[in-house]
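Good morning C.,

I know you're traveling, so I'll keep this short. The sequence:
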Amino acid sequence: MHLAIGKFIVVPLIVAFPMLLISCKKNEAAPEDTVQYTQTPVTISSGMPGYPAPTIPADNPTTEEGVLLGRTLFYDPKLSADGTISCASCHQLSKGMADGLPVSVGIRNQRTDRSSMPLINLAWVNKFFWDGRVNSLEEQSLHPIDNPLEMGNSIGNVVSYLQGQPAYVNLFRRAFNTGTVNATLVAKSIAQFERTLVSFNSKYDRFIRGQEALTAEEAKGLALFSQHPDPFAGANGVRGANCNDCHSVGLFQGKTTGFQGFMNNGTPAGIGLPQDLGLQLVTNQTSDAGKMRIPTLRNIALTAPYMHAGQFGTLADVMDHYNSPDLFQKPNVDILITSAINRRFTTELGLTSAEKQAVIAFLNTLTDTSFVNNPAFKKP
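The tokens, ready to paste straight into the viewer:
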């Protein structure tokens, strides 16, 4: 089943099942693993011509029943050690599935060392966390549970809690045809829900579909965003903001081949935090020092503050960072950044104030209000 906006299919619609599934009849709460339920498939698609198809694991197809279970788990603070933190605490729909903090905060108000990444279009991602340490949503979904600074629990405790809840046992039966809860099924169901968090109905998308026009400033911002500058091209050169080299137009995120979607962009350490080694912690390669996963820019206007430790409060701050005259001299900054200049024989990007504003105007067209208001993504 799909949510149709106009005649375009943009995002899967997860049927909000009546809460009678949660408060099921007594005869359904009895051990009846012999009963076989039929799961309803959910198709995940961008709904956009020419966009790549997402990769869905063969052993975890997306179903309405699995998504409902995962969505219920996602919003349940009882999965944390003290019953105060859920997945949704750090991934809030109104904030583009981020949390609006420089770094996320877990149980007992403990401050972590990185910002909460926005959970958008994850079906098109294959490396997770800022340092890319896991390769699947299934694996990713369990990490916050046993992180002592985040949910501070153990998956064993979570399984025991869920097994003791008849309503949850009923949801597991309907999703996976078993009333025996285990870590694998917890991970699969949360991953199913997270894959449905699809956002492809921004003003930019409507522009691509021919439904809405960009303003002159937004169009200028798109052109700058898309172009790698070349001051030696022709008499006047080609001006560009160099954004597309990392955030490819379309998904607006990093590449998915190997660790190509990771970059050191010269971001300073977060306030009160040491310099983060990022990808080097995974690969042990000094050449990867400070590289972080390139996140999607979709809904970027909603996900401030920016970078891996919330170093920049506004998009204007981000633009100033990339145009800083000392950025190119910082250690290990990626060559895609240091090769981008708008004036000959300089060592900085060098956008004008008007060009910076145009890029920001374009970035604001990536906001998808239908995503943040979608009832299928809210607490069931």
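Safe travels,
E.
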